[in-house]
Amino acid sequence: MTDVYQGSCFCGAVQFTVSGAPAGMGYCHCDSCRRWSAGPVNAFTLWPPDALRITRGAEHVAAYAKTPNSHRKWCKQCGGHVFTDHPGMGLVDVYAAVLPELAFEPGVHVHYQESRLPIRDGLPKMKDLPKEMGGSGVLLPE
Length: 142
Ligand SMILES: [Zn+2]
Ligand SMILES: [Zn+2]
Fold this sequence. Notes:
three-stranded antiparallel β-sheet; binds zinc ion
């Protein structure tokens, strides 16, 4: 039995599921995530793209790519953010906030050098990204 988690946008027009287990979970502090989310930090869950299935309202999903690394997606009806495709990593970030059924277990903070909200939770703080995701792999102190 594969675990399946339901999610939706802010208004509910866009419905989707993710199945299996996330490839990673954590917090991104980068300037792009902060500006786009209008929040101090983005809680991410990363999945192989085929784990995500849009079950309703795919026609309402719009996308914007400021850089080729991140295709940010939201619902055209409510403006609620839902996913970011990361083609370079071969993963899709389904925001933790839109997956209420998934137990969010963050393992890492990324882009911590850009943080505006220091969080002392004992988790590793990557200066940018882990090496396997194309970053420096450098850890910062809390
Ligand atoms: Zn919506
Ligand atoms: Zn980010």
